[in-house]
Amino acid sequence: MAAMVAGSVSFGFFMDPVTAEMGYSRSAFSLVFSLVTVVGAITLPFYGRLINKVGSRKLVIWGGAWTALTMAALSLSQSLLMFYAIACLIGLGFFGCSYIAAPVIVDTWFREKNASIMGAAAACGGLCGVVAGLLFPNIIAAFGWRAGYVCMGVLVGLLTVPAGVFLLHSRPEDVGVAPYGADELHATSDAAGSRVQDEQAATWGYTRSEAVRLPSFWICVLVFTIVPATVIVSQHLPAYFVSVGFDGVMAGMFMSVISAGIVVTNMAAGTLCDKVGLLKGLVIISIVYALSFVLLPAVGSSFAGICVALIMMSLGNAFPSLLAPMVTGVVFGNRDYASIWGIVSMACVLGQAAGAPIWGLSFDFTGGYQFGMQVAVVVIIVALALVVMALRSNSASKQSEGGA
């Protein structure tokens, strides 16, 4: 997760130096990251199946090495077409070694505290984004954007390849241990029959072919397309703050607040879901996140009010990074989790890719972002109602199987 965020955040720092030196328009150069995102999204269902065959360890190692080398190769670009071609190559490995792998690793290794672990992983990504924000502007200013791309590749490589080689094993049984929490699960069983039921419950779920025929699957795909589209408002917040009267320095300070908020709120969201359950946690997170879109335009120029609204808004990052993989696991089980998550994760990525221009259109048509924020509140409420339906359908299906 840290590698994904480091790579994503760092791309933005190259906009000014590259376009100034090479003479590209900003819209043309912006397509570089769009191509990474779109190509990466297309690969996610494929990686969802591949990770079941080769294991997460090989995917992290080879995907991380590929992504590191191709990111560094951007330093060799001499034309816009070369930037585009290398961006497509980056996309082939970018999400495979990060976004698809992290939830599968957590699902495989943990039977308890899943949400807290996913929250911590997402928080590490946010922390790495803060560090990248401090590191790369200085590197680019001192050594140039080509050296910056090399450093970006080195950073992604260091965050993935050594971890895969020295720390990661694809499955607990590869090193002769049980998943975390499995011993406690079995300890609650004082009879052989109930122990078998516990083991069956631990491997409950649908195959991908079964899941895609369920209404709850398409509900999840829809929810985790439209909510991440609201989360990407963060790309437009600097422009929003300037549009309401702040200068660029204050806008940058506010963006640091939301970046730091992501670190704290992701861990808090994971802990909350483990304490009160995924359904109640989802309701609380959704309500707080929706209220942030009400509060931000309402507080005007109040520094304290804006900071509170931004910290609340940072909870939105929990949807693609924490809640989407958790809901996928709860609704469809871990029998074929990686393959199903491959499709749901693609929806998250495409939702964010579509959300950026939609927020831009909101400004173009209305002259501000307030209308878009009002629509975001409605989207979050509708999404909450839909995902509650999906989670309740999961409970009903489990009860029917238990009674069979």
> CATH-wise, what's the superfamily of the largest domain?
MFS general substrate transporter like domains
Number of strands: 0
Question: How does the major sheet shape up?
Answer: none
Q: Indicate the CATH architecture of the largest domain.
A: Up-down Bundle
Helix count equals: 19
- What is the distance, rounded to the nearest whole angstrom, between the alpha carbons of the first and last residues? 40 Å
Low-confidence stretches: 189-201
Mean pLDDT: 85
Strand content bin: under 5%
Reading off the top of the CATH hierarchy, the class of the largest domain is best stated as Mainly Alpha
CATH fold-type name of the largest domain: Growth Hormone, Chain: A
The best one-word shape is: globular
Structural class: mainly alpha
Characterization of the model:
- By secondary structure, the chain is an all-alpha fold.
- It has 2 domains: 2-170, Growth Hormone, Chain: A; 206-394, MFS general substrate transporter like domains (Growth Hormone, Chain: A).
- It contains 19 helices and no strands.
- It has helices at residues 2-11, 15-22, 26-54, 56-73, 80-94, 101-109, 114-143, 145-167, 182-187, 192-202, 208-211, 215-231, 237-243, 248-276, 278-298, 303-313, 318-332, 337-366, 370-403.
- Helix 1 (2-11) runs parallel beside helix 7 (114-143) and helix 3 (26-54) runs antiparallel to helix 18.
- The longest helix is centred in the last third of the chain and has 34 residues, at 370-403.
- The radius of gyration is 21 Å and the shape is globular.
- The two termini are 40 Å apart.
- The model is unreliable at 189-201 (pLDDT under 50).
